[in-house]
Amino acid sequence: MTNKITGGFPMTAQISNLFKINEKEYDLIGSSRDIDFDPREYGLTPVAPHTACWRGYYYVANIKDNKLVVENLHVNNADDDYPEINGVKAVDEKEESSFYAYYNVDLPINYSGKLLLGYGFLRRYYQHMGYQNPHAYQELLMLTFNNGELVLTKDLSDKAAEYRKSIEKDPAGHKKDVSSDLEEYIEKSFSMEIDDYYY
Predict the structure, then answer these.
(1) What is this structure's pTM?
(2) DSSP letters along 117-179, please?
(3) pLDDT in the model for residue 140
(4) CB atoms inside a 10 Å sphere around CB 180
(5) Hey, is 27 helix, strand or coil?
(6) Torsion angle of alpha carbons 50, 51, 53, 55, nearest 10°?
(7) Distance CA 11, CA 183 (A)
């Protein structure tokens, strides 16, 4: 099976960008708008090293002095040349992870909008393509930013738990909803849009 998002390539669960909150690493599972961060602005041309990372990079973001930054950047560059960025040299980790890594690079993200973050992934809800569903996490946070500054944090863990209960109460009905419009389900799996349920 193919779809327009992956350009006809096999569909695989994607590596999520990570966010550090209170020393925990949360998966980024949704956003109200695209995050304006592009490694190309730093002289890189990311290419997919494998089917689990079509964009060719992922990052670990952090909030420092209440500002959103890319703390660590992991990238697979097209020409295998990795320039110094923000005074930081890339570390070759291709053998272990297929990427080079820039640690403590602290690149600012001037983002305005909401981000949905998940921690404590529940394996029983794993899906084999795209990004994981919000209800698959024990902890769920919605962070609101204005020009890169954190202005609000909302805990949505209870809402995720409620959704899991509804699935467990009627698993057959949930599977029917998925299979009734498989194409739409696949599109949503590769989308980072936040479902209205969590607003």
Answers:
(1) 0.73
(2) EEEEE-GGG--SSBSPPGGGEEEEEEEEEETTEEEEEEE-HHHHHHHHHHHHH-HHHHHHHHH
(3) 92
(4) 9
(5) strand
(6) 100
(7) 13
